[in-house]
Amino acid sequence: MSNTKGYAAYSPSEDLKPYDFDRREIGPMDVKIKIDYCGVCHSDIHTAHNDWGMSQYPIVPGHEIIGHVIEVGPSVTKFKQGDLVGVGCLVDSCGECPSCKDHLEQFCENGMVMTYGSPDPIMGGVTHGGYSTQIVVTEAFVLKVSEKLDTKAVAPLLCAGITTYSPLMHWKVGKGQKVGIIGLGGLGHMGVKFAAALGAHVVMITTSPEKGKDAMHLGANEVLLSKDEEQMKAHAGSFDFLLNTVPVKHDLNPYIPLLKVGKTMVVLGATPVDLHTMGIIFGRKNIAGSLIGGLKETQEMLDFCAEHDIVSDIEMIKMEDINQAWDRVIKGDVKYRFVIDMKDF
């Protein structure tokens, strides 16, 4: 066993507090990583607060992990001590089902093992994530990180990055298309950057004029204020694709008329929405969902970011400041992702 320091949620209502626990011993195919940075995702808060009704306590959140390899198992071939690596939302899957064989481990039909909050098949209890000093992960679920990029700002790419990159790839977003990004937060700001890098005409759809100004600096071509009925009418039937990044309950109906016939709005938030089917029936429009990406696609995303010099816009915090940071995330008071500096924890 390897003693590890972390911060954990002990119940849905308590602040995160220090928590010491054991990581497993290195197996033949395992990689042990000293965590340098861990991004803060809204999913961390949902899980800690048991918003999805599945949480077991105590639990250590964090699935946007960047660090250096400190030890490898004897059968590991892809990594060596000192390598800069990442770990995202998944740490294992069955490897045998059709989804896994198609590099879609996030849809493993026998149940993916999430970085935190999943039943731990080796240690028992639940898996613990990156709000901690180290982690042990099987080689197949470790990602290579380019030294070209600002390392600390790479961390949110492991969730916010792949969550927005994957649907843009799946729906083949690119040049000549008009793409709307709904909501400018941790996910939305990455959606703007990726869609712009892919050559699309990017429209930031927001309720906030100030966020609209920020979006233009991030690469958006236009801003559409969704509370302005005249602006919404002017853009009706003109979008090839909408990426909805809003993380809280909201009404989808105002956005559906923006789509061209047969086009798609992808919803990323795991949250209740209001939808009247009339809007999708007229125009054969599509409402779809997307999760993260598999390991192959996540590595492709990291390589794309290295090629195009894309990272997240971040604010650094210390581990002991996590509860105040969570309060600010809930209020939407961050541009656009917190990253915890774990090196001095």
List the helices and strands and how they pair.
Layout: E1 2-8, E2 17-23, E3 30-39, H1 42-48, E4 65-72, E5 84-87, E6 90-92, H2 98-101, E7 113-114, E8 134-138, E9 143-144, H3 151-154, H4 160-170, E10 178-182, H5 186-197, E11 201-206, H6 209-218, E12 222-225, H7 229-234, E13 239-244, E14 250-251, E15 259-267, E16 273-274, H8 278-281, E17 286-289, H9 295-308, E18 314-318, H10 322-331, E19 337-341
Parallel strand pairs: 10-11, 10-13, 11-12, 13-15, 14-16, 15-17, 18-19
Antiparallel strand pairs: 1-2, 3-4, 3-8, 3-19, 4-5, 5-9, 6-7
Helix pairs in contact: 4-5
Please count the helical segments.
Answer: 10
Q: Give the full name of the CATH homologous superfamily of the largest domain.
A: Medium-chain alcohol dehydrogenases, catalytic domain
How can the largest sheet be summarized? 7 strands, mixed
Q: Give the CA-CA distance, first to last residue.
A: 20 Å
What is the element string, with H for helices and E for strands? EEEHEEEHEEEHHEHEHEHEEEEHEHEHE
Strand content: 25-35%
CATH topology value of the largest domain: Quinone Oxidoreductase, Chain A, domain 1
Q: What's the overall average pLDDT, rounded? A: 96
Percent helix: 10-25%
Total domains: 2
Q: How does the overall form come out from the CA principal axes? A: globular
